From TrEMBL:
SMART domains: Arg_tRNA_synt_N, DALR_1. It catalyses: tRNA(Arg) + L-arginine + ATP = L-arginyl-tRNA(Arg) + AMP + diphosphate. A motif ('HIGH' region) lies at residues 122-132. Residues 461-577 form the DALR anticodon binding domain. PANTHER family: ARGININE--TRNA LIGASE, CYTOPLASMIC, ARGINYL-TRNA SYNTHETASE. It comes from Streptomonospora halophila. This is Arginine--tRNA ligase. One of its GO terms (molecular function) is ligase activity. Monomer.
């Protein structure tokens, strides 16, 4: 599909070479959207100083050699040397028709890479809280986008399923009884189960001694202890899946790749690092000291790969994940969708893996940093008691609030239909609010803003799709049968058609930058262009049959683009609202 900005860049670049010589043939033409035209080429200003000429003279030279007559109706030099480029209406219409006819709606298919993406990562026998929302939602959107671009995505849900807490959890499971109501809490209220185990551990020396002994048995691979451990993991998986189903994300049991998966690799990791002189013993622990990583007073900060008591930490497991994802999965890119505070730790892990040869050149690890979710007070969102907000409660409240909005707006619908719309609107609102801001920044969680039917919100975009479907229902037309041809007769038609052409570039941009908010911005702009079209260009009442067919084709392309874009974000589009 045609990206106007990309095509113009190539044309202007060719003109630069023809006008100024081969040395300038690779110069960035600096093509940008413009308020005075569709696009603007700004290269002349930067080149003028280098050439010792007036910018307008350089611009005139470029224009004299510029071949864009097939796509531009106007080329104008303005100001100190900007080249304004206004596209032809028939060219825009033709490209919009091509996008309508394209099964991929203009989304490019890139050279396939294998991408391992680490996201969500809750802990066994612990509640998922609001802090897990962003890593799950952002990671899932990136997985969807990368797959749409043609990449092989391997989801890696690095759950916390190993370590010392399992001693007390297993003993509490035995005390409570397998299959008991208390054990079932791991499926429904895991924090209650965990806290009960912690209280016994802190209050009973006898229980604490049993728990410590159980940890040793777990680490030694005792079959009965491993069976009990697996039971806790299985119970927690039921809970995780309830959350994932509610959030409508693509994670499955097959994507679970917890800490335990790498347990057998850890001794070999340490042995190799020590043998090769990358790690050394310091105060009884095996540590890696890397140049440039220092703390207070310039003291080196170690990456501890084996503790003084012989146990392993996150650093060891994270090194094992790098080795596994490169050697076993064949990953070209490693994405870690986790909190921003983990930046230093990850950089140390990656540099250690580079030194060990486990992270070869050409394999790119990326930290997709996740910022905090804030309350209205500007602090990390918590309950009044200061505890993290349970994710399930937050999602349930979103759906309840959405149900009230739907009931007020659509009392004509039956209860089941309203409930279905409320689920899609409530969950979509929460996910879109998260995705529409840069993933590494903080944002304030505000139900009223999220559920608003105006502004850059999920419900606004969902309402746009429902409005388009309503037009098709009233016209008795199937959107899939709207074939055009597209023609442009009004400015609002032109704006909508031109906006459609940005979908493929927007999706590709998310794949390159790993920033889902870029797709949100595009979809919001498209929805606004549709609103302008809706207000100025009647479809059902169009007198000319050709204009009517063209407008049906335009809104069919708009509907597919909005729904496809929302789907890449993991947001459903209700049939009606």
């Amino acid at each position: 599909m045609a990206d106007p900005q990309e095509i113009l860049a190539a044309r202007v670049q060719s003109a630069l070479g023809a006008a100024l010589g081969a040395d300038f043939a690779e110069t960035d033409p600096v093509i940008r959207p413009s308020q005075f035209a569709d696009y603007q080429a700004n290269a002349a200003l930067a080149l003028a100083k280098r050439l010792g000429r007036a910018p307008r003279d350089v611009a005139a030279d470029i224009v004299a050699h510029l071949d864009v007559g097939d796509m531009c109706r106007e080329v104008e030099i303005s100001g100190p040397g900007f080249v304004n480029l206004t596209l032809r209406d028939d060219w825009i219409a033709g490209q919009a028709q091509n996008q309508l006819d394209d099964p991929r709606a203009g989304v490019p298919r890139q050279d396939a890479q294998t991408v391992a993406i680490d996201y969500s990562a809750p802990n066994v026998a612990k509640e998922m809280h609001v802090g897990h929302l962003r890593t799950t939602v952002v990671g899932d959107a990136l997985a969807r986008v990368l797959e749409a671009l043609g990449h092989g995505v391997v989801r890696q849900n690095h759950i916390g399923d190993w370590g010392t807490p399992f001693g007390m959890l297993i003993e509490h499971l035995l005390d409570s009884g397998e299959g008991s109501a208390e054990a079932e809490l791991v499926k429904t209220d895991p924090n209650a189960f965990y806290q009960a185990a912690r209280e016994k551990f802190d209050g009973s020396p006898e229980f604490a001694a049993r728990a410590r002994k159980r940890v040793v048995e777990l680490q030694a691979g005792d079959p009965e202890t491993l069976r009990l451990w697996q039971e806790l993991v299985d119970l927690s998986t039921v809970y995780f899946n309830r959350i994932y189903a509610k959030l409508d994300v693509t994670l499955t049991d097959a994507d679970l790749a917890g800490e335990s998966k790498y347990n057998d690799m850890l001794p070999g990791i340490c042995e190799e690092l020590e043998r090769r002189g990358i790690a050394e013993i310091s105060e009884g622990a095996l540590c890696v000291f890397l140049d440039g990583f220092t703390g207070r007073e310039g003291k080196p900060v170690p990456l501890i790969v084996r503790k003084s008591d012989g146990g392993y930490g996150y650093g060891t497991t994270d090194l094992a994940t790098v080795k596994y994802r490169v050697e076993e999965l064949g990953a070209h890119r490693l994405l870690y969708v986790i909190g921003a505070p983990q930046s230093l730790h990850l950089r140390m892990v990656w540099e250690t893996a580079r030194k060990a040869g486990w992270l070869p050149e050409g394999v790119d690890p990326v930290h997709v940093q996740i910022g905090n979710v804030l309350g209205s007070d500007g602090k990390i969102l918590r309950t009044r008691s200061g505890k993290p907000i349970r994710l399930m409660e937050l999602l349930d409240e979103a759906v309840e609030r959405a149900a009230k909005v739907v009931a007020d707006n659509r009392p004509d619908l039956d209860e089941d239909t309203r409930a279905g719309i409320a689920r899609e609107v409530g969950i979509g609102a929460v996910k879109y609010a998260d995705l529409s801001v840069s993933h590494d920044t903080e944002y304030v969680f505000d139900y009223d803003r999220m559920l608003a039917l105006n502004g850059n919100t999920g419900p606004y975009l969902q309402y746009a799709t429902a409005r388009i479907r309503s037009i098709f229902r009233k016209g008795g037309v199937d959107p899939a049968a709207a074939a055009g041809p597209v023609a442009i007769t009004e400015p609002a038609e032109r704006e909508l058609a031109l906006s459609l052409l940005g979908f493929g570039p927007a999706v590709a941009s998310v794949g390159a930058t790993l920033e889902p908010h870029r797709l949100c911005t595009y979809l919001f702009d498209l929805a606004q262009a549709f609103t302008g079209f809706f207000e100025n260009c009647p479809v059902l009442q169009a007198e000319d049959p050709a204009v009517r067919e063209s407008r049906f084709a335009l809104i069919a392309a708009t509907l597919r683009t909005l729904e496809s874009g929302l789907n890449l974000l993991g947001v459903r589009a209700p049939e009606q609202m």
